[in-house]
Design a protein that fits this description.
Layout: E1 2-8, H1 13-28, E2 33-38, E3 55-59, H2 69-101, H3 114-122, E4 125-128, E5 131-134, H4 145-155, E6 160-167, H5 175-187, E7 190-193, H6 196-205, E8 212-214, E9 238-242, H7 251-270, E10 274-277, H8 287-296, E11 303-305, H9 312-320, E12 324-327, H10 330-338, E13 343-347, H11 350-358, E14 365-367, H12 373-384, H13 387-420
Helix pairs in contact: 2-4, 2-5, 4-5, 7-8, 7-12
Length: 421
Amino acid sequence: MKVLIINQCATNKGDRAVLFFLLKELVRNGVDDITVSTTNPHYWADLRGFPEGLVRFVRFGWSISSKRRKQAGLLGEVVLRIKRGIYANICFPLVRRALLRGVCPWYIRFLCTKEYWQAVSRADLVMSTGGHRVTTLLVRDAVFPATFDMAIVLLRHKPLVLWSQSIGPLKFRRQENRMMIKMILSSAWRILIRDKVSEEELSKIGVSMENVSQTRESVFGLVDIVENPKKPSDREHIMGISVYMAQKRSYEDNELYVNSISAVVDHAAENGYSVRFFPMEMSGADRPCIEQIIERCRNRRICSIVEGYPGTVEHIAGVAQCRIFIGHKTHSVVFALTTGTPLVAIAYHEKTEDFMQQFGLGEYCIPEAQADGSKLIELFSKVSSSLDEISERELKCSHEAGSRVREDFRKVIEDARRGFE
């Protein structure tokens, strides 16, 4: 069976961990023909832990990135903007119209990259990587590469699995875009959601729940790569932090955010901690914010940033060394839970609250809008008083969630094989 994985963001550490899980489980379930559609294939030149030649990487169908962008400077930025405009205003509407009409005109193959079209054409099963792919949270009307590429898959009449997804929020300005997203969700062969709010979003948009089921977050399936983590009380006094920068903030909101994180850093320093920042973007998108926070701290000398591009195994191992964690980026929260690292979770979306509640740790999660310095310090102190108890709960729940997500994945592959025999 030939499997194509789509919607993979190459520079996002959480997405990389999800892909690591998917590749492990595909191999475990006897799949040896795997293609991955990703934003920047060159970021996967050093794929480790899998047989050479097992995985092929191709660009997105909606190709908006280039490894030469930085070198190209201003000209590269102009070209990129033009390219985005063409896809959003010409290619996307044409694909949308074809999908809503239920036909695949001859010209569709020329609206996406050649390598993506060929990968979709040869695939038996297409899986959208777990994460947050169908939403208007970051992009208006969900007009962006993930939904474009899903539509191409459905126009080629290939079975599409939305694997371990968060769905929504879904708020549309144009009815035709709402209809397109409903069509994608209704036409998917399987949708496996990882949080309760996604079920509500699917119901609100009018999607039948017949092919929808619950699973757990993919990265919990990597719990077996965590090598006997120490009890937090036996770990060094290190506080890990991961920030979130995907959504634009006003100057005032950014100042509040930086001051809030720096306040809890200074509090941790006063309690004998060193602070280690874990960037979640290989592109460096969150680096300026981290540096701004450190600059604002009274105790800068106790702060450090994890440098380079550590792989998933190394990144998770680094989190496992922390005594306590402040997680804002979704998968930084998941990494902490998986490694039994007590944490304060900052929720920019309900999915983070849901994950914490699944582990019985909802009291240590705070919505982003309420996460000022005093609240974070209060939660830091609360977590600090129950480190080992929290860790024990995290590890127990992580092993249960890991077993569940691996079993759910196995069933998807088995059902796919039965369907193709």
